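Our preliminary data section would be incomplete without showing what the modeling component actually yields. Below, a chain of 223 amino acids is followed by its predicted structure, encoded as tokens that our downstream tools consume directly.
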Amino acid sequence: MRQIVWLLFCREWRLAWRRPGDLLNPLVFFAIVISLFPLAVGPEPNMLRTMAPGVIWVAALLATLLSLDGMFRSDYEDGSLEQWVLSPHPLAVMVLVKVLHHWLISGLALVMLAPLFGLMLSLPVSVLPVLCLSLFLGTPVLSLLGAVGAALTVGLKTGGVLLALLILPLYIPVLILGTGAVEAAMQGLPVAGYALWLGCLAVLSLSLAPLAIAAGLRIGVSE
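Predicted structure:
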């Protein structure tokens, strides 16, 4: 099984580099949203600092959502997803590799870019580690929950809107906790509680989401 996981991971990397647009679109969207925001509300540092946590987290959420529709689409169209379902190997483990790859090329990249845009929005340097920590714990949850919606809509030609309607309500707790952690750090309050809750959501999603994704793919492929 370990060899299968490694081969799947290498396959996902090769496919990703063949489609560089899929890698860059979420990051470019994230950068554009945050860069345009000061032009809309003005360059006043105190206002930008107050709104920065929400702006960065909403941009990260939407950037993740942008990349979800195609997570299983190409595999469904070329027939490899059907082979995954028929394979004797655990489907939950195989889709977990897919989600891990998605997070590495989108969620982790957003975590690395966040400090730069945090400084652009006048966030104090002391708050940047908390921002990165909140995104590091929260973006895997976004990818895992989003993959559940992507699996349920994989057989639909116009599943993007339905995917957003299914997933956005589930994203709200992550958004509240992520922005709350950064705002608490800005006010000098403890952030451990927010981090622990985000960690709990990450562990819960990691435990249950692969099973839900596998079930959704079986339903989508059988239709």
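The mean pLDDT is 84. The first helix runs from residue 2 to 18. Preliminary results of this kind motivate Aim 1 of the renewal.
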